[in-house]
Amino acid sequence: MKYAQILAALQARIEHQDYEPGALLPSEAALMREFATSRNTVVRALRHLDRHGWVNPIRGRGRVVLGRPQSRLVALPRRLQVLLQPDRHGRRVGGAVVPAPPSIAPTLSCVPGTPLATGRHVLGDADEPFAMLAWYTPAPFTAAPDVPLLEQLERSRGVLSHRVLERLGARLPTDRERKLLSLPRTRSVVVALVTVLDTRNRPLLTVDAALCRDVPALTSTFDLA
After folding, report:
1. Hey, which of 158, 161, 164, 204 would disulfide with 4, CB 3.0 to 4.6 Å?
2. CA 62, CA 114: separation in Å to the nearest integer?
3. Are 19 and 62 in contact (CB under 8 A)?
4. Over 60: is that where the pLDDT of 146 sits?
5. What angle, rounded to 10 degrees, do the helices at 2-15 and 149-157 form?
6. What is the per-residue burial (b if ≥16 Cβ within 10 Å, else e) of 143-170?
7. pTM over 0.85
8. Banded model confidence at residue 219, pLDDT cuts 50, 70, 90
């Protein structure tokens, strides 16, 4: 998609300070020539930069570069910020294209077996990990290690994330989780299933995480009539 290509290229140049804060972006005509596309496509990409704080349009001058805006994830609870930025908070331990598991397929509005790109991460220090997660998104998608995951997805799909849904539960860890997280056999884990939706409420990403948290015992008393 040409729009997404232009947007990704301009954001990368701003991040790497090829266009420094205070400088002007190239004109619409220059970008049309560079990317061999229509004015409407170029303007669409530039309006995205305008709306999301990358540049400031000034009448009579052009678009002034502001720099990379602060992540919108700061509005989320800390645990969700961590789960949605796995490369920043841990190490990657695997990744591939896999058939959609039955537990994940509904969160991405697909049928089980649909090809999904995935990455697996252990969060925390090497000697004290606190979570293991897998993220899933419709294939094809290849994650680069030096760019935030959600930002890459937004660029590659040409969309903007809008809403985050979180479901919490608890279960016993799998053998792999027990080994990587150094858990005793009887220890439970908190399970967080996090889905990111775009502005049209279409699923963009699902994160399935197992966290080393103590699960309090739940006790209820009921009187029988």
Report:
1. 158
2. 45
3. no
4. yes
5. 140
6. beeeebbbbbbbbbbbbebeebeeeeee
7. no
8. low
